[in-house]
Specification:
Layout: H1 2-13, E1 21-27, E2 30-35, E3 41-45, E4 49-51, E5 55-57, E6 70-71, E7 85-89, H2 93-104, E8 108-112, H3 124-137, E9 140-142, E10 145-153, E11 156-165, E12 168-177, E13 179-182, E14 186-188, H4 195-198, E15 221-223
Parallel strand pairs: 4-15, 6-13, 7-8, 7-13, 8-9
Antiparallel strand pairs: 1-2, 2-3, 5-14, 10-11, 11-12
Length: 231
């Protein structure tokens, strides 16, 4: 609250007008805002547009996040009790970080990762050392394992998977727990912005394409942050 109040003060001090709602581009020079309070629509005429909508959690088609039994990284920070057994789908930074937090608080933690090693594109020497450290601390890993489905019955979640051998399906395995953290990465929040309507290009992952000056292919529209490639 202190941070956001401080930002609001700076906006007011510098005469920045802001609207709290959802925005979509109608043209390269106009943005329609649907206000959160009452749903009223405002149309803003403008010379330049900056897109900075960030990213959202990537979901698996068969694992709908409900933030109760199947949680995202957001829900994993808001659990009201320590899980008995937390199953983490995805052995990247976010999954390992949050898995480590709940393990230290007393949960049994199992990480299911499709790749043969944790931490994705990180330095593999460091990743192997981290794997040994986490295993020594009690974290369990099932690497080269593809998740194929999730069943929820009562308070139990069953993660169905199959081991991968040379890129082919192997043995079918199951993991049972009371919470599942889906941590398979994030994706750019580029839907509903009107990109197609105004002709702004996206790549195959939905990221907005920009040049070295953060300018899109539409000259007066720019994009920054998790919406574009790079750190």
């Amino acid at each position: 609250k202190g941070l956001t109040d401080g930002v609001a003060y700076l906006m007011k001090k510098n005469k920045v007008t802001y609207f709290i709602g959802s925005g979509t581009m109608l043209s390269p020079n106009s943005v329609e805002v649907t206000l959160n309070d009452g749903g009223k629509k405002e149309i803003l005429e403008t010379k330049n547009i900056m897109l900075a909508t960030g990213s959202v959690v990537a979901e698996l088609p068969f694992a709908k996040v409900d933030e109760k039994l199947i949680v995202s990284s957001t829900g994993a920070l808001e659990l009201d009790a320590v899980p008995k057994h937390l199953i983490v789908i995805g052995g990247g930074v976010i999954g390992l970080e949050l898995g480590s937090v709940w393990m230290r608080l007393g949960a049994e933690v199992t990480v299911v990762e499709y790749a043969p090693m944790i931490c994705g594109a990180s330095d593999q020497g460091a990743a192997k050392l981290l794997l040994k450290i986490l295993q020594k601390q009690g974290m369990k890993f099932s690497l080269s394992t593809k998740v194929t489905g999730i069943d929820v019955k009562g308070g139990t979640v069953t993660v169905k998977a199959e081991t991968m051998v040379d890129g082919k399906s192997g043995e079918k395995v199951e993991f049972q727990g009371d919470k599942v953290l889906v941590a398979v990465g994030r994706k750019p929040f580029s839907d509903g912005l009107g990109l197609e309507k105004v002709g702004v290009k996206k790549d195959s992952r939905g990221m907005v394409e920009v040049d070295e000056h953060f300018r899109t292919n539409v000259g007066n529209i720019f994009a920054v942050g998790d919406l574009i490639r790079g750190p």
